[in-house]
Amino acid sequence: MKFPTYKNETQKLDEGFLYVAGCDEVGIAPLAGPVVAATVILDPKSIGKQRSKSKWWYRVRDSKTTNEKERAELVNFIKDHCLDFAVGTVSHETIDEINIYNAAQLAMKQSVDGLRQRPDFLFIDGLHKVKSVDVPQQAIVDGDAKVLSISAASIIAKVARDEMLKQLHETFPMYGFSSHKGYPTLSHRKALMKYGVTPVHRKSFTFVQDVIKRYCSMKTFQKVLVTA
Prior knowledge:
Layout: H1 7-14, E1 20-26, E2 35-42, H2 68-80, E3 82-90, H3 92-98, H4 100-113, E4 121-125, E5 137-140, H5 143-146, H6 148-171, H7 177-180, H8 186-195, H9 206-214, H10 218-227
Parallel strand pairs: 1-4, 4-5
Antiparallel strand pairs: 1-2, 2-3
Helix pairs in contact: 2-6, 3-4
């Protein structure tokens, strides 16, 4: 299991940057719900030079390698030891309008813009920098496994999005949103085939489109939307 370090942030701090942030998004692949991003500026004074079991960030890592219980603990440690954080959320309707890539970009921009303290350097997980954000940036592949502030952002974003999907589960319990969080698991796909498409599904995604076609006509489709 890979654990991130703070060396990338330390390098930028040594170069004279004052507020170094990490940004990540969650929710690219799901068939339903929003895409969510978070940006975090960790407090350098709370980090120290080396990872040890006594450090608050000892278990912080890519949210995909943590379980739900662990994330619930880590997110509080992160929020208690950061200078600032913010979350950006882009709805399934907007995803369908502008596509998932642009929606993820928008969510990340929202999270940066939502900070009280504007960062002067930004690390991004992935291949692409955040468009329309006038801040020096570096995109790092697998950054959520390498860069501590990106890992912290991935956990905050994941916890925030999971809570949203739990709320959707209350409205559409037969789909199992509280367990799969909208991802295209076998149980989710079976539920879609059985019950049809809900108003919170991403209708620009291929599998959802195939389900819509299964119901043959827009009249049937509208009925499914209303009764789901």
